[in-house]
């Protein structure tokens, strides 16, 4: 990670910046804010800024933002392995597989034990077909899937191939389950939560998600957006 004052960074030639995306911000919200700070700093209206790997608004954690010529590396960063810490609520489901929508079904959880969870999670290791949420940013007929879903329009999602490289049981305090996942590009942790609930003969939806790693980069090295904004003339990237 870069450790320089803003004045020493060459945003036109390109920089790779690590940010800890705030809760309820979209990935583009963060890109827009970073672009605004850089434009003000440079006194220029045109500067390429993009992110590598979308995070849902209800997720937090590592978001890689590239500027200038480094935006050509976005595809490479997007293809890298990701790590997440996820919290699941067992015994219920929602249409969006997370907190964005209200609970639509409830299930029993009395039969769920730590041993059952551990054995169930092991079955998700490897390459598999996953059905993305209809409340997602996938493009469907020229429109984001979530926009159709919010309008009550039925969305037909197609299976995608993903790889779960590691999945670790962290804690279980019924009905809350916490797990760590390392996975390939394109994996929807919301869908994984839904599938885990089904495999446990119950239901589940995602209540908390944090991206902790993307390729060689760790969230511990990431910058809070408020620090980036407040230190335009001071050391900005830690």
Question: Which properties best describe this structure?
Answer:
238 residues; nine-stranded mixed sheet; alpha+beta; disordered C terminus; Pseudouridine synthase; single chain
What does this protein look like?
The protein is an alpha+beta fold and 238 residues long. It has two domains: 88 residues, Pseudouridine synthase, CATH 3.30.2350; 132 residues, Pseudouridine synthase. 22% of the residues lie in helices and 32% in strands. The strands form three sheets. Strands 1, 2, 3, 4, 7, 10, 11, 12 and 13 form a nine-stranded mixed β-sheet that branches. 34% of the residues are buried.
Write a short abstract of this structure.
The protein is an alpha+beta fold. It has helices at residues 27-42, 74-78, 114-122, 145-150, 189-199, 225-230, and strands spanning 16-21, 49-52, 59-67, 82-90, 92-93, 105-106, 126-130, 139-140, 143-144, 160-173, 176-183, 204-214, 217-218. The chain has six helices and 13 strands.
Helix content: 10-25%
Question: Largest sheet, if any?
Answer: 9 strands, mixed
Which parts are unreliable, with pLDDT below 50 for 5 consecutive residues or more? Answer: 231-238
Number of domains: 2
For the terminal residues, how far apart are their CA atoms? 7 Å
Kindly provide the radius of gyration, computed on alpha-carbon positions and rounded to a whole number of angstroms.
Answer: 19 Å
What would CATH call the class of the largest domain? Alpha Beta
**Total beta strands:** 13
**In the CATH classification, which architecture of the largest domain applies?**
2-Layer Sandwich
